[in-house]
Design goal:
This protein is of the alpha/beta class. Helix content is 32%, strand content 19%. It binds D-xylitol-5-phosphate and zinc ion (ZN). It is an enzyme of class 5 (isomerase).
C-alpha cells in the first residue's frame, strides 16, 4: 500500500554484514532504509556518519532516510546529501537556527524533514512546517533503540494531519505490532522500526506482522 511504508532503522543491524542485511531486508520487501546519525552530543549515544550512508547507497537503490541527531547539522547536511541521502531530518531542539538548516536542505534538493522529541510541542514548530516535506514526532527520546513507545506522538500526528494534510508524517521509536495501528490511525504513513524487525530471525515475517497489524 502506498499509504504505509515501513523503514527499518539500521541502528541494530549487523554492520559486519551490511550487504547481507540490506539484501535480506530488500528480499523481505522493505521499500526504504532509515539511518540514525548520532553525535554523542545532541544525544548521549554515538553511531556513524557519512561513510555508512555512502556504503548503504552503493548497496541499494531504495530511498535512504537519514535522521540527524546531531547538534550542528548545518555543518554536515551537504556531505550527507552528497553521500546519497534522499531525505534529511533534523531536530527542532538544536541550538542552531532550525529554519536556516531546513532551507539549506531544501537547496540541496533532497527531502526536508523535521523531528521533535516527546517534550517538544506541535505548536512550537508549526511555523516551520511550510519549509518541510516531513514531520517526525518522536515516540521515544531520540538516542537509543529498544525504548518503549510514548503515545504523546499520536496527538502530534493528529494535529499535523489536520493542519497540514499534505505533509508526510513519520513515527520513530517503539513502533511494533502493538503500537503501529494507533500511529497509522493518527495519520503516519512512514514507520521507522528497529527492534521489532532486528529482534526477529525472519525479516519477512516481521514485516508481514507489522503490515497485518494496520490491516494491510
Ligand atoms: C532512536 C532512533 C530510532 C531507533 C528505533 O533514537 O531514532 O530510529 O533505532 O528503534 P526501535 O524501533 O527499537 O525503537
Ligand atoms: Zn531514527
Amino acid at each position: 500500500d502506498e499509504q504505509a511504508i515501513i523503514l527499518p532503522s539500521l541502528l541494530q543491524c549487523d554492520f559486519g554484514n551490511l550487504q547481507r542485511e540490506i539484501h535480506s531486508l530488500e528480499e523481505a520487501g522493505v521499500r526504504g532504509f532509515h539511518l540514525d546519525v548520532m553525535d554523542g552530543h545532541f544525544v548521549p549515544n554515538l553511531t556513524y556518519g557519512m561513510p555508512i550512508v555512502e556504503g548503504v547507497r552503493k548497496l541499494t537503490s531504495l530511498p535512504i532516510d537519514v535522521h540527524l541527531m546531531i547538534s550542528e547539522p548545518a555543518k554536515y547536511v551537504r556531505q550527507f546529501a552528497d553521500a546519497g541521502a534522499d531525505s534529511l531530518t533534523v531536530h527542532a531542539e538544536i541550538e542552531q537556527d532550525t529554519s536556516e538548516v531546513l532551507k539549506m536542505i531544501r537547496q540541496l534538493g533532497v527531502g526536508v524533514g523535521l523531528a521533535i522529541n516527546p517534550a517538544t510541542s506541535f505548536e512550537s514548530v508549526e511555523s516551520l512546517l511550510p519549509l518541510c516535506d516531513l514531520l517526525l514526532p518522536m515516540s521515544v527520546n531520540a538516542g537509543f533503540g529498544g525504548q518503549q513507545f510514548n503515545p504523546v506522538a499520536l496527538e502530534k500526528l493528529r494535529q499535523a494531519r489536520h493542519n497540514f494534510p499534505d505533509l508526510l508524517l513519520e513515527v520513530d521509536g517503539g513502533v511494533n505490532i502493538g503500537t503501529i495501528a494507533d500511529c497509522y490511525s493518527a495519520g503516519a504513513t512512514l514507520f521507522v522500526v528497529g527492534s521489532a524487525i532486528f529482534g526477529q530471525d525472519d525479516y519477512r515475517q516481521a514485516l508481514e506482522g507489522l503490515t497485518a497489524a494496520i490491516g494491510l
